[in-house]
Amino acid sequence: MNWQTLLVISLLGLSAIFATGLSVFAWRRRTLMIWAWPFALMTASLAFWSLTYAIEFVFPLLEAKTVAAKFQYIGIAFVPIGWFLFAMAYSGRERWLASSRVALLSLVPLVAILLAFTNEAHRLFWARISLNTNGPLAVFDADYGPAWWVFFAYAYALLLIGSIAIFLALRNFNAAYRWQLITLLASPILPWVGNALYIARISPVPQLDTGPFAFTISALILAIGIFRLRIFDLAPMARSAVFEAMQSAALVIDRKERIVDINSAARELLITEAGDPVGRDANEAVNSWGQISALLPDSGPTQAELMLERGSLTHYYNLQVTPIHNSRGQPRGRLLLLTDITAEKIAEEAQAMAQVRAELLAKVGHELRTPLNAILGMAEMIDYGVYGEVSEKQSAAIQNIIERTHHLTRLINDLLLQTQIEAGEFRLYDEPFSPYELVKRVGKTLRPLAQIKDLSYRARVDASMPNLLNGDPDRITQIMLNLVENAIKFTDHGEVNLHITPDGSHWSIQVSDTGIGIPIEVQSKLFQAFEQANYKITRETGGFGLGLSIVRELATIMGGKVELESAEGIGSKITVTLPLEPVEETAQ
Amino acid sequence: MSNPLAMIVEDDPTLIDIFAMALQSAGYSVEKYNDGESALRRLRQVAPYMLVLDLHLPHISGEEIVDVIQATPRLSDVIVIITSADTVLTSFLRDRVELVLEKPVSFYQLRELTVRYHPDRASTGE
Predict the structure, then answer these.
(1) Which of A83-92, A153-162, A298-307, A527-536 has the lowest mean pLDDT?
(2) Cβ burial A201-221 (10 Å sphere, 16+ → b, else e)
(3) CA–CA distance, B61 with A459 (Å, rounded to integer)
(4) Where are the beta strands (DSSP E) in B1-57?
(5) What SS3 class is residue B87?
(6) Is B92 on the interface with A (CB under 8 A)?
(7) A381 touches chain B (CB under 8 A)
(8) What sign does the CA torsion over B109, B113, B115, B116 have?
(9) Is A533 helix (H, G, I), strand (E, B) or coil?
(10) Nearest to B80 by CA among B59, B91, B95
(11) Is a pLDDT exceeding 50 seen at residue A486?
(12) ipTM, 2 decimals?
C-alpha cells in the first residue's frame, strides 16, 4: 500500500469520524429541533459512505472493492434524502417528515441499493466494472448503467429542491443571518461540484470520487453554522416567524435607508404600492417616511410618538428605533418598530377628561354646600324655636324644607363620588366603626322620608354581628342610604326593610321593599351610572340615577358584590355583601 | 361653673350664627371669628375647650391653624372640629383632628355632637 492510498484512507476515516460526531450531535437534539433528525440521517449516511469508501481502498482486489462499493451506496443513497428532509423541515415544510412521505422518498434509493447488490444478475446499475490502476491509487471503476443514471437524476433533484427551499426561506432574513444563508447554501453546492466533477471525469484527482470529502467539508461548514452561528440554538425560521407575526409594524433599514426587511404589519401600515419593497429606498416606498425619518436620531436607540393617518382615522404610534451593528460593532442599519397605542391614548385622554370633570364638580359642589348649609341651618333653627314658637303647619313645612335639603346634599355627594370614582381619585378609609351606629344614622336620615310616604321602615342588625368592624363608615353608610332611599322612592305602599347579617367571611346589607319591582329586561342596566329603569318614574321621583351605580362601584372597590332579586309588582331585594373585618377587641 | 369656651372660625356670617346658636344651646360659651388671623391672635391668649373650624378662610387657612395647634403643647387638649365644603381637603385632615363634618352641617347634628363632648356630660360618664 503506497502513501497516497494511506493518505486517502486516513482522510476518509477522518471524514467518517467527523460525520459520525455531527450525526450524534444532531440526534441528541432531535426533540428540540424538528430538522435535527434529518440532519443526523444525512451525516450518518455520510459517515457510512466515507467509511465504506475507505474500506474500498484497504483491499487491492476488484472483487473486494466491488463489495465495498455496493455498501457505499447504502450511504450515498440516503445523503440526498437526509439533505432534502433537513431543508424541508428547516424551511418550515414539516409535513415532508411524515413517515409515509419519507417511505415514498426512500423507494428509489432502496431500489438503487438492491440493484447495486444484485448488479451481476442484470448489469442495470453498473454496465461494466474494472480496476483502475492508471494513477497511484487502485480504484473501483465503472461504466454506469441506466438504473444508476435514474438514481443519479433523482439524488441531484433532491439536492436541488432542498437547496432552493432553503434559499427561499432565508432570502428575506436580515443581515444577522446572512452568514447562515451562505453556509447553508454552500454546504449542498460543494458536494454537487465534487461529485459532478468525478462523474464527468474532470476531477483534480481523476481516480478519486471527491464526493465524500466534499460532503464532509459541507458538514464541517454546517457544523460551524451550528457552533459559531448557533443555527440550532435560535432558529432563524422561528425568528422569522416571530418577526412576521408581530402585531407591531417592524421595518429594517440599512445605513442608506433602503428597506432590508419588513413584516406584514409594516407592509399593511406603511406600503401602498404593490410589489416587494425590500431593497427600495424607504423614502420612496414608505408612506409618511418624512414624518418617521424626522424622528430618527443620527445614532443610538430612541423612542418617540407619532400620529399616522389610517384611512380617515388618526392613529397614535410608539416608534422604537434600535441600531443594528455587525460583529465588529460597526453600524449596519436600524430596526424600526411601530406599535399602535391609540387605545391607550384614548384611555389617557378619557382619564384626563374625567379628572377635569371631577375637579369642576368638586368646585361646583363646594360652592353649593355653603348656601345649602345656610338653608338647612336656618330651617332647623326655626324648627328648634330660636325665632319664636312654631305652629304645627309651619313645622310641617319646615320639615319639608329640611328633608329636601338633605336630599339635595345626597345628590351632590353622589355626583361628586361618581366623578371621583371615574377619575380614579377615590380614597377609601379603613377605621373601626359600629354597624349599629351606621344603621341608626340611616334610620335617622331616612325614617322621616318613609313616614312622609306612610311606609313602614324597619332596620335590624343580627345579634351575631360583631360590635366593631374595620372599613370606611361613611362609604358604607352611603351604600345603606342609597339602597334605602332608592327603595323608599320606588315603594308606594307597604314596607322597606334594612337587614344587616354576618355571612361567613362576609357580612351583608340587605334592603327589601314591597315596591313596583324591576322588570327583568332592565335589571342589568340598573347598576349603570345615569341609568334608571323607568324614565317616567325618574321624572316623577327625581335623581340622576346614580344611587345604585355608586352602590355597585363602592361594593366592588371594597371587595364585595351586589345581588338583585326583583319581581314586578311584588318588590325588590338588593343584597350587598362585603368582606367581614371584625376589630379584635382587646381587654381594656 | 362657667360654660366651656368654644371658638368658631367661619367666614360665612349666616353659618357662623347657626353654628354659634347650636353650640350655645349645647351649653358652650361662644366666641366668633370670621378670619384665620384674628382666631390665631386669640389662640395665643387662651386655650379654648373646643374649636369649630372652617378650612377656606381669608388670609390664614384652617389647615395652618391646625398646624399651629398641633405644634403648640398648650393647645394640645383643644377639641378641633372641622366644618368644610371641601371634601378633598377634609379627607387629608381627617386623621389630624377630632371630627370632620362636611357641609352642609346640620344645626341639630352639630348641637348633638357638641353636647356629647361637653365636659359636664363627659364627666358624668353618660
Answers:
(1) A527-536
(2) eebebebbbbbbbbbbbbbbb
(3) 42
(4) 5-9, 29-33, 50-53
(5) helix
(6) no
(7) yes
(8) positive
(9) coil
(10) B95
(11) yes
(12) 0.90
